[in-house]
Amino acid sequence: MFERILAFWRGRIYFIARGEQLADFLNEALRDRIIFFQAQRSEKGLRAQVSLRDFTRMRRAARKSHSRIRIVAKYGWPFIAIRWWRRKGLLTGLFIIAITLISLSQMILSISVTGNKVLGSQQILEQAAGQGLKTWVWQREVDPNKVAAILQEQIPDAAWIGIERKGTHVEITIVEKIHPKVPSEAGNLVASKPGLVQEVIVIQGQPQIHEGETVRAGQLLIAQTSDISGSTDKANRQQAAAKGFVRGRVWYSGEAMVPLIEDKVVESGRLAKGWGIKIGSRVIMITTPNSPFSQVNQEVVGRPLLSWRNWRFPVEVINIRYKELSQVHTERSSSEARQLAENLARTEVYKKIPKGVGIIEEAIKVMPHTNGQEKVRIEVETYEDLAVYADP
Predict the structure, then answer these.
(1) Would the pTM of this model clear 0.85, i.e. be above it?
(2) Total number of domains in the chain
(3) CB hemisphere CA count around 173 (13 angstroms)
């Protein structure tokens, strides 16, 4: 490897020597300590390689032996340097382009605003420009966190402002404050869910239901009172809103079905790893090219070999995890399947019940099973508040 690098650095010339005294040519060249590489004798003459430095000294041996030298090819850094040196204009242009691209990559070239619905993008961009965040400025001169903090103080309707730099692009993300909607009229209390009313306490308003009545979701429970003062100001209208409590019994249910005989595929816990290189759409695996398992769940994670800002090297390193899958056959007794179905149904029904609600009763019902399955239904009775303000 080192010899190839050294040969490239010094440069080599491929040539053919012709003449009647090639033996004298070789002797004279060897006497001058000229080293030949890959020398071959053919009908056309002597084909060989020499370094660029030895080629200039080889002319004396060629003159003495009356041999003719024809250059076939040139290889190495000296010839590349000479070729590029003759193209000074192109080199200068490439240098200017490289400096320009490097300079532009250190600047802010575009700014966008996302997440805003009420606030105007132009207004936000003008305020950001007042803090130094604008196009055609150096990125190191702008502190995104500092600008975001100042903008959040200047824009009271913004709950949060974040500034993220993505290469030469800056994205300003706005989360606007959600202002509570003021109803155009006093609010009514309606049922949040179906239930059986057990207790009605009216503080303000007109009750529309009575104890012992079954209500449906959205049904009016306590209606707003009329504003007898005739005032239309906001304070009096809010005082006329319905106020009170409506509590009742609510029922929740959940079902689950578990088979007595079940075949399913699960991960066995055995794992194999492999890695490779992806060039374009072609993948070359270095280790573990194929899965060692017959059934497998394959996870592939790729990361670029080199990356800089938004640029990525077109070669990626691929890591593959092979997770073995196994077929599991399970046979359950009726009691085991019923218990599992009960646990699943209980988990399902308690997800529907709000936290902190009092449980009155839980009923477990074993449903008629068919096709080798056990089915369980769980019904839970709670006591909770039913009244909520209707959406304006």
Answers:
(1) no
(2) 4
(3) 7
